[in-house]
Amino acid sequence: MLQPLGDRVIVETLNEEEKTVGGIVLASNAQEKPTTGKVVSVGSGKVLDNGNTLPMSVKVGDVVMFDKYVGTEVTDDGNDYLVLHDSDIVAIVK
């Protein structure tokens, strides 16, 4: 498993099947990029200028919402993940 550094978070994106109002399932290339995912690993936090570490705002297992076109897509052991900065996460889904 990958271990992110600093204020980075590794998220497994949650792909929801998209349907139109008429019930037609959209092809994967016609769907929007996913904006929710499950946190699978977190870094130690952002190191501030004074040397203190700002703790992460999410933990492993949280389902989060993030901006559409952020992060770096990576593959590890055949699974696709997204590496984000903690600041790219906009909400925790409860």
TrEMBL record:
One of its GO terms (molecular function) is protein-folding chaperone binding. It is found in: Cytoplasm. Heptamer of 7 subunits arranged in a ring. Interacts with the chaperonin GroEL. Together with the chaperonin GroEL, plays an essential role in assisting protein folding. The GroEL-GroES system forms a nano-cage that allows encapsulation of the non-native substrate proteins and provides a physical environment optimized to promote and accelerate protein folding. GroES binds to the apical surface of the GroEL ring, thereby capping the opening of the GroEL channel. HAMAP family: CH10. PANTHER family: 10 KDA HEAT SHOCK PROTEIN, CO-CHAPERONIN GROES. Belongs to the GroES chaperonin family. NCBIfam families: PRK00364.2-2 (NF001531), PRK00364.2-4 (NF001533), PRK00364.2-5 (NF001534). This is Co-chaperonin GroES. The lineage of its organism: Bacteria, Bacillati, Bacillota, Bacilli, Lactobacillales. The gene is groES.
